[in-house]
Amino acid sequence: MTGRDGGEAGLPRITFDKVEKSYGSTLVLPPLDLTLEDGEFTVLVGPSGCGKSTTLRILAGLETLSGGEIYFDDRPIGKLEPKERDIAMVFQDYALYPHMNIARNMSFALRLARAPKSRIDSEVNRVAEMLNIAHLLDRKPAELSGGQRQRVAMGRALVRDAGTFLFDEPLSNLDAKLRAKMRTELAEMRDTIDKNMVYVTHDQVEAMTLGDRIVVMNAGMIQQQGTAEELFANPVNRFVAGFIGSPSMNFLAGEITADRVQGQGFDLPLPPGLAERAGARAVEVGIRPSSIVLEGGAPIQLRVIVSEYLGAQSVLVTRCGNVDVLAEIASVDRIPSGQTRDFGVRTEEIMLFDRATGARI
Amino acid sequence: MPRQNPAFYALLAALIVMALGPIVLMLGNSLKMNVDITSPTSSLLFMPTLRNYETALCDFLWYEPEHIRRCDKTFGRALVNSLTISIISTGITLILGCMAAYALVRFRFMGRGVTSLGTLMVRMVPPAVLLVPVFGIWTFQFGIDGTIGGIILIYVAMNLPFVIWILQSFIVQVPIQLEEAARMDGAGPFRTFFLVVLPLIKPGLAAAAIFTFRVAWNEFLLANALADRATRTVPVTIVNSLTEYDIDWGLIMATGTLLAIPPILFTLVASRQIITGMTAGAVKG
Fold this sequence. Notes:
The structure holds two protein chains of two kinds. Chain A is α+β, with helices and mostly antiparallel strands. Chain A has nine helices and 20 strands. Chain B has helices at residues 6-30, 34-38, 51-56, 74-106, 112-123, 127-142, 148-172, 176-184, 189-200, 202-218, 221-226, 234-240, 249-271. Chain A: Belongs to the ABC transporter superfamily. Chain A: One of its GO terms (biological process) is carbohydrate transport.
């Protein structure tokens, strides 16, 4: 029923060509161009309402295109029904069929496709073994815990053996501990299963740990795409810089004078070249919490408001002028709250952003 | 009010007598001979007999009761007619109703809101208003007066709006993600509906079935106008047996008792389907 005659090796390269979505006169997704290489684990990440889920649902065929076209290799699929796209999807809310037991949930697609019973059984058992849910096959979804349901939802997609897997925030309903566990398992699965995977999340930790390629979206626009390292080390604008990394980057308003940047409560030297590139203009100074140190670096005075002890690391909420600045430092001594003291900034890690456009300088 | 108050119990007793009295009276009289029923010294002490039931059901008995000289098939036939008409019309109403309700809830088409509201408005028309036009159309245009099919048709038309309306509220509660999941799994609209949605609205179907069955079973006005001798339902037959020459009270009471049994059985069976939490475990709450 689907064009899978190409066999396992023939995973499609997915291309979004000026894909557009609007509801009535409201444009929710401005023309979007994106290419996902075959076999890649792509993560679409962004704050809620940024269009990442819409993009995924358009790819799934659950939403119609308002403009543009999606290609699997050279084949346009924008008008095809979901079942003709060779795609399996894991839903955020699991969406298990409550009246079927787990085995029947997982085999639903194969049964619809009238696959031979022996193949259905072996596929269901194989996937159930892999996901550690073989002992649950006779149960109904209501008798399962959240984490187990999540596995079943994944199992249902995996049984399909489709070329492309879509994940719509699959871990967002789990508690923190389980989420971390499932994230690890997903990362493991990513390496063992050779499929196209497109994963939507608002959690940048999931994005960074799972994605071969991370696509950061905001307000329907792709801000930047690349590997986790690229995005962290070289964000193209203030949004990406603030979104990627935890705790998130500090931004301080400042002015460039000669080779220094000054603002309320700070006066920092800039690495060679950066000041010239910036020229004299209003900027936002981006400092990662990890760039602030207790010893060395360019001096800055910060008043400690709260000290969050996290074990080996402590996150200090400090104030510089009237802006909160987070500092991530090794927990050597407990630093009392309310104290104003000297910190250091690793100036080579400072980033500058145009205050008007947000673009990286 | 304190529960110990005797007035409270007196009130309860009065309500129970009012509710059960007629039924007990009907049941009691159905077990009496006509002589006992009409005698001025009517009492609770009498020789119970099944004669009235034998007379009503003479057509279906495997033996021939000696008190019956000629078997009058009227009541037996009416029971069969009532069962046939009620069951078939309930079935058709549910099948059409659930599909119409699904379309109204899930598909976007022009005039959806008007259709949805319109179906309910139709329900507001009292059957008495329909009586004359329906009789005219059924008799002179369709020529289906006096047929079981004709009565089934009007019952389906009468019950459909309410069933559509009741099922809409059940279908709305089925999480849309389930249908999307089914679409991803390769199901078209029909298989999505029959394999995923329908099993989940079973409680709604049961509620609608109880309602539809009872309306069809009890309906008198239209059946009286449309039915002929051979297609009369039980309510019509009972009323028609109250003649100026003879009223067989015992037989009427027995038929009345028999009339009460099927809806009770049907409700007992159907109400077992009415359980909550059908969609538990489908999506994260």
